[in-house]
Specification:
Length: about 350
């Protein structure tokens, strides 16, 4: 038992929920951002400018999604070079493999997508680390082990993952269409909370294929958290805090939330209002990874623009739901909590 533990330590294999579901998923979000999300931005710019080069770039960027996910996960797992590079293939296999199902009397090919890449890459990379540098022919053994194990794992799990992700996303999207008030609140609050937690809301939204009104509600919740925290902590953090949280991430507040969970109330209450505003009033729509990014780099609003087009209703909806409403509502709620002593001076202070 001691030898086995020592071997795993030497191989830098330390399985834990935090490593896989927080750290690796966080890196996976970066992989999505650098490929699928950037590709979407280039595609949107190409559509509005008519510049074909941007659309061409978008195609290449999106096609690299699976590979980037594998590399991002391998980097977090501290994979040796050969394992890291083979992880690109593992990510592509997990992202692209799935199954064909009969849905509504029509054959539909489903892929496991980012969820498949996540599971397959983690298993294949950890197995690749086991054999890495253990033989004189490492240059053959390591990539063969990593890629072969990726394919075997993908064949076993990706059909089920593709089915589960399809139905989960379909349930959320359809339920939001049928119950825009209730689901508007639920999706906005839950995805917004996930955004602020050290878990990737972008990765989760991409995994389940959130879209339509549900995607709009998710965007509203993420924006409420980021803009909300940026505004209510302005007296403590000034302009640097406003930019870091409003265009970066509300995750910066996690330390303060742990010390005083009540500081999370204003932004969360704001998201419970902006979600239904999105689904019922402006009927905003957004898709996949963009829906889980909020105002980070203005990706959420750009995603809404891509899905809905630049109409007056879209622009007004973005202004109200993503910016003005979360700022005003969060500020009102925070001032009430400051008055009753639930939020005190410097409770929202960041070390920037």
């Amino acid at each position: 038992m001691g030898k086995g533990k020592a071997f795993l330590e030497r191989k830098n294999i330390r399985p834990s929920a935090k490593l896989y579901f927080v750290d690796a998923m966080g890196s996976m979000a970066l992989g999505l951002f650098a490929t699928l999300l950037i590709g979407t931005i280039f595609e949107t710019l190409g559509q509005y400018t008519g510049w074909a080069l941007l659309t061409e770039i978008a195609g290449y960027a999106k096609s690299c999604t699976g590979a980037a996910l594998g590399v991002a996960i391998g980097y977090t797992l501290k994979a040796p070079p050969l394992v890291l590079l083979s992880g690109a293939v593992a990510g592509m296999i997990g992202n692209g493999l799935g199954a064909t199902f009969m849905l509504g009397g029509v054959e539909k090919a489903l892929t496991a997508g980012p969820a498949g890449a996540f599971i397959v890459a983690i298993i294949a990379i950890e197995l690749g680390k086991v054999v890495s540098k253990e033989t004189p022919v490492d240059i053959l053994v390591t990539p063969v082990t990593t890629i072969l194990s990726a394919m075997l794992v993908a064949k076993a799990v990706c059909p089920a993952i593709s089915w589960a992700m399809y139905w989960l996303g379909s349930f959320v999207n359809t339920a939001t269409e049928m119950q825009p008030l209730l689901m508007g609140v639920l999706v906005s609050v839950v995805v917004g909370i996930i955004l602020t937690l050290p878990i990737s809301s972008a990765a989760i939204c991409a995994m389940i294929g959130i879209s339509g009104l549900a995607g709009g509600a998710a965007t509203a919740g993420c924006c409420a958290q980021m803009i909300g925290f940026a505004v209510i902590s302005f007296r403590e953090n000034k302009w640097s805090g406003l930019v870091a949280q409003g265009l970066g991430t509300s995750m910066l507040q996690m330390g303060n939330i742990i010390r005083n969970p009540r500081v999370w109330i204003p932004a969360t209450l704001a998201s419970a209002i902006t979600g239904p505003l999105s689904t019922l009033v402006f009927r905003l729509e957004c898709t996949g990874v963009s829906a889980g990014m909020g105002t980070c780099g203005l990706v959420g609003p750009l995603g809404i623009l891509k899905d809905m087009g630049a109409s007056a209703n879209t622009w007004l909806g973005i202004a109200v739901v993503c910016l003005v409403a979360p700022a005003v509502l969060s500020l009102v709620f925070s001032e009430i909590l400051r008055k009753i002593g639930w939020i005190k001076e410097n409770d929202l202070k960041l070390e920037l």
